[in-house]
Amino acid sequence: YLFGTKEIPTNKRKLIAERGWIELHGATQFNLKNVDLKLPLGNMIAITGVSGSGKSTLITETLYPALKYYLDGYYQDTMGDFKHLVGQHNIERVYLVDQSPIGRTPRSNPATYTGMFDEIREIYSETLEARARGFKKGRFSFNMKGGRCEKCQGAGVIKIQMQFLPDVYVTCDVCEGHRYNKETLEVKFKGKTIYEVLNMTVVEAADFFKNHIHIYQKLLFLKNVGLGYVTLGQPAPTFSGGEAQRIKLAHELSRRDTGKTLYILDEPTTGLHMFDIEKLLHTLHQLVEGGNTVVIIEHNSDIIKNCQYIVDLGPEGGDGGGQILYQGQLNGIMKVKESYTAKYL
C-alpha cells in the first residue's frame, strides 16, 4: 500500500436521491452555528472537517439522539439542541456502530454476541453421547450450573480484586481454563469438545460448520469483515475498539434486513491497517447495497473517496468551526477554497 503497488479501490456508485432525505434544521449544540443538515438516504455519506469542527456534535450528539427519540419514543441521554427534524419516517431504525466493547466480562465473546453459540450448543445436545447421558442444551452453557466448572463458574479464569489497581484474572486451577466440567467435555462432535470449538478461529470454525448453514453464514460475515483470525471464545475485553466495531457490523450483516436502517460510524478506521480498511469498506458497501444508509465521520481519504455524498464542516476547529462549508456530491467540494478536506483530496 505504501509503495503504491496495491491500493484501495474507489467505488463509482452514483448518488441515489429518490429514497427520501433526512433533514436536521437549526442545530446549535456547542460550537454549531445554527446549521441545517440534509442527508440523502440509500448512500454512503462522509462527514468531514478538521478536529473540533463539530462533526461528532452534529451527528452523534444531535442527529443520532433526535432520530432515536422519534423512532423509539424516548432517549435517556442528553440530546443536542436543534429546531426540527424532517424525514425520520423514511427509516425504521438508527444504529450507532461505536467502538465500545461487545461485553464487559470475559463471559462475552463473538460466539455469544452473534447468537451462533445457541446453535452450537443445540448441535452438541443432539449428539448420541449427550442423549445417552440426558444432557440438554443448557448443559453446554458456561453460564448455567450443571455443565460448567463451579470453581470459576464457567469463566475459565478467577477474578482477583486488587485494591487501587485493576482486577487481575488468573486461570482456574480446577478446569485449567476449559470452563466446563469433565463429564461435559467427554461429549464430542466430529471429534471435538465444545471447549475445542470455542478455541477455533473463525476460519477454522467456518470449515468445521460448513454443513450448518446458519452458523456458517455468521462465521462468513465475521471472516468478510477481516476477523478470520479471532477465536469464537475470545473474551470480549481483549478486543480492540476497531475489532469490537467490526464484530457489530458482522452481526448487523447477518440480521434479516429491511433496508431501512441508518448506520452511524465515528472514525471507524482509527488504528486499522490499509488491508483492514479495504475489508471494512467492502462491508459498508454491502450495507448500502441492501438499501441502508451509512453515515461515516472520517478523516481517511480512501473512505471519503468511496462516499457518494459529503458534508464538510469547518473551516477551523473550536469557535472557528461549527459551519457547514459544503454538502452535496463528492466532486463538488473541490471548488470550496476554504475547505481543508478539498485540499487534502
TrEMBL record:
<dbReference type="GO" id="GO:0003677">
    <property type="term" value="F:DNA binding"/>
</dbReference>
<keyword id="KW-0234">DNA repair</keyword>
<keyword id="KW-0862">Zinc</keyword>
<dbReference type="GO" id="GO:0008270">
    <property type="term" value="F:zinc ion binding"/>
</dbReference>
<dbReference type="InterPro" id="IPR027417">
    <property type="entry name" value="P-loop_NTPase"/>
</dbReference>
<keyword id="KW-0547">Nucleotide-binding</keyword>
<keyword id="KW-0267">Excision nuclease</keyword>
<protein>
    <recommendedName>
        <fullName>UvrABC system protein A</fullName>
    </recommendedName>
</protein>
<dbReference type="GO" id="GO:0005737">
    <property type="term" value="C:cytoplasm"/>
</dbReference>
<dbReference type="GO" id="GO:0004518">
    <property type="term" value="F:nuclease activity"/>
</dbReference>
<keyword id="KW-0677">Repeat</keyword>
<keyword id="KW-0067">ATP-binding</keyword>
<keyword id="KW-0228">DNA excision</keyword>
<dbReference type="InterPro" id="IPR003439">
    <property type="entry name" value="ABC_transporter-like_ATP-bd"/>
</dbReference>
<comment type="similarity">
    <text>Belongs to the ABC transporter superfamily. UvrA family.</text>
</comment>
<dbReference type="GO" id="GO:0016887">
    <property type="term" value="F:ATP hydrolysis activity"/>
</dbReference>
<keyword id="KW-0963">Cytoplasm</keyword>
<feature type="domain" description="ABC transporter">
    <location>
        <begin position="16"/>
        <end position="338"/>
    </location>
</feature>
<keyword id="KW-0238">DNA-binding</keyword>
<keyword id="KW-0863">Zinc-finger</keyword>
<keyword id="KW-0227">DNA damage</keyword>
<keyword id="KW-0479">Metal-binding</keyword>
<dbReference type="GO" id="GO:0006281">
    <property type="term" value="P:DNA repair"/>
</dbReference>
<dbReference type="GO" id="GO:0005524">
    <property type="term" value="F:ATP binding"/>
</dbReference>
